[in-house]
Amino acid sequence: MATFLLASVFHSLAPYVRSAQVWHFLWAWAELPMGFPTGGLATEQMALRWIHFVAGFIWLGLLYFFNLVGFRTMKELDPSVRARVYPVLMPRAMWWFRWSALVTVVAGLRYFWQVLSADAQNAGDPALAWRWLGWWVLVWAVAYALIYPLQLPGNRILDNPWVRASSIAAIVIAASWMVLVLNSSPQSSNSHLSISVGGGLGMVMLLNAWGIVWRAQKKLIVWTRASAEHGTPMPAEAERLARWSFIASRVGFWLSFPMLFFMGAADHFPFLSGITD
Fold this sequence. Notes:
Elements: H1 2-13, H2 20-30, H3 40-76, H4 79-123, H5 128-150, H6 161-183, H7 190-230, H8 237-268
Helix pairs in contact: 1-2, 3-4, 3-8, 4-5, 4-7, 5-6, 5-7, 6-7, 7-8
């Protein structure tokens, strides 16, 4: 039906197309065997992927901007200039940052559930989907509980970036291995296992975005605005919160690279399972 309508439109425009080559190109394009998938599931999955991608681009784009450009630039600005720029820039940036992170993860969770349900149906036991999801939530919740204190500033040992990075990397590797062991089965697809790791890393990044970065930044924004408008001195806690926000943002920055690898491998690099969508 779609092909017939396109062909009709191009045919009606033929008198206005002077170039024979252009007309032949358009006609050949109209003759392509196009068609949309039928069924609500395919449409929902495409919508979820589109939302997941768009929101993820915004989230990671801002995360990379903060880490590659923003932090260093703010340090180099004159304090008086920084006090004027910060309260204007950060509220808008943080709004997009935290809400795009949430939308990305919510859309991803819905898609992940569909993958788990399909694998469970193929295994002949729909209840497996709930068990796999439960293990996934438990493993990454424990991982974040261990990662959280490692990001706190002020600890002399953990203020060494190598100690902090190696400790968090060890936890992430252990959690990834554990969730793969718990969720692996003869019916587990590559998408299932890849998202079990990549989605877990995304969840850690989301918890950092809302639980640390936004919590610290909303106070810093208020204090900086008061300092710029009324000359109010910055509280002693401001330096600690800025450092805490920086560490959490930097952890999310580094975790984004393996996260993107596993999310991309879900449909395009079947190295965890021979079962593909």
